[in-house]
Amino acid sequence: MAHTSQRRIGPLAGIFFGLAGGVALGACVLAPVLPERDSGAETITPEQLSEARLEARIGAAQADTADAVVASIAEETVSGALTDQSVLVVTTPDADSGDIENIAWLLGKAGAVDAGTVQLTEKFLNQDGADGLKTIVTSTLPAGAQLSLDRLDPGTHSGEALGAALFKDPVTGEPLAEAGERNLLLNALSEAGFITYEPGTIQPADVIIVVTGDDDGSTDRFAARNLATFATALDTRGRGVVLAGRLHAAADTGAIGVLRADADANGHVSTVDSIDRAYGRMATVLAARHEREGDSGSYGSAASADAAAPAKPTGPVRDPERPAGEPEVPEQPVAEPEAAEQPVPEGETPAAG
Predict the structure, then answer these.
(1) C-beta neighbour count of 32 within 10 angstroms
(2) Alpha helices in the chain (DSSP H)
(3) What does the pLDDT average to over 170-184?
(4) β-pair type (270-272, 298-299)
(5) The pTM is what?
(6) CA–CA separation, 9 vs 341, rounded Å?
(7) Contacts (Cβ under 8 Å, ≥6 apart) of 99
(8) For 44, which of 48, 200, 273, 280 could close a Cys bridge (C-beta 3.0–4.6 Å)?
(9) Where on the phi/psi map is residue 191: left (φ > 0), alpha (ψ -120 to 50), or beta?
């Protein structure tokens, strides 16, 4: 799906970036430069450490207050942003249940239609399950769907397959896959231990939000990269994907950080860090609206984010602009009904044609 990368800054950007500064200060205090014997390194005095800790507590209190303000207006800000749009949520094993519930609640306030929730398992993301995952998605691929021939990693192939099964067609708005094909793939992945979901609850989606946790990828770089490529490939089959997680997921080795470092992926998939904060959850819902309209961005408080949150949308959801050169779907001609033959009065001969 073609997207326009537009880094939109919302009206509360000043508050958001103030929070980002507080996060940075907190990181410095949590990992201070402690004195070491004969190391030659610069040391700090107990007074300096005490002052830094005090500033961190003040910064944290201010951040909590600012976040409370955002929480108080979040419902109004997202109201109607996704009216009648089907949104499906995909979660990772480390995603916080509170984050998932709060995002789902905001999606409801935005008017979104709940298209269901699919939970990825550790087996789906780790290297041990890679070959089995590829085998299943290849053998249960929906009719007409294709897998990449030059990118053979499990994240790409599983994203392409699930995208073909779960998304609506970006042009027509009709489901890409038949219900039977979608259920076949989901059931096969579930039986093999790659996903869990509640049967009968999964519906075709306009937008998919992938919710992850706070993993910085340092202990399992394969899983973080696998998630990033999965989200990227998922997006190629539909109208839009948002990858959202907590702050550490935006580290260079975290899933969000890996995706943001890829210029092409970053221009098509929206990312949000800090979803344990009200502004991050609000940004996730607003990003879903902008994705639906063909715009992508990187949001949150990490250094790799280009804005704190998308701008508040106005008016009804619009269809994304069609990329140059892409043909429009022709309207089907409506056949005019044939004129009914007039009955011939008794005793008369029909006129010759």
Answers:
(1) 12
(2) 13-30, 46-78, 97-109, 122-125, 130-139, 154-166, 179-191, 221-235, 255-261, 263-266, 278-292
(3) 93
(4) parallel
(5) 0.78
(6) 66
(7) 211, 213, 246, 275, 276, 281
(8) 48
(9) alpha
Determine how β-strand 207-211 pairs with β-strand 241-244: parallel
Distance CA 202, CA 183 (A): 9
**Average pLDDT in the chain:** 82
Q: For residue 233, give the 3-state DSSP assignment.
A: helix
pLDDT at 12 (0 to 100): 45
- Tokens 């599983």 correspond to what residue? 158
Report the alpha-carbon distance of residue 6 to residue 12 in Å, rounded. Answer: 17
State which H helix or E strand residue 299 sits in. Answer: strand 298-299
N-terminal to C-terminal alpha carbon distance within the chain: 56
CB of 324 closer than 8 Å to CB of 239: no
The string of pLDDT tens digits covering residues 53-75 is 877 777 667 667 666 666 667 88
pLDDT of residue 1: 53
Give the three-state DSSP class for 350: coil
The sign of the torsion formed by the CA atoms of 256, 275, 223, 230 equals negative
Residue range 261-320, pLDDT digits in tens = 999 999 999 999 999 999 999 999 999 999 999 899 999 999 999 998 998 888 888 876
Q: Examine the pLDDT at 18 and tell me if it is beyond 80.
A: no
How do strand 195-196 and strand 113-120 relate by DSSP bridges? Answer: antiparallel
Rounded to 5, what percent of the chain is helix, strand, coil? 45, 10, 45
Q: Domain locations in the chain?
A: 80-299
**CB-CB contact of 302 with 274 (8 Å):** yes
For residue range 82-139, what is the model confidence (pLDDT) as tens digits? 999 999 999 999 999 999 999 999 999 999 999 999 999 999 999 999 999 999 999 9
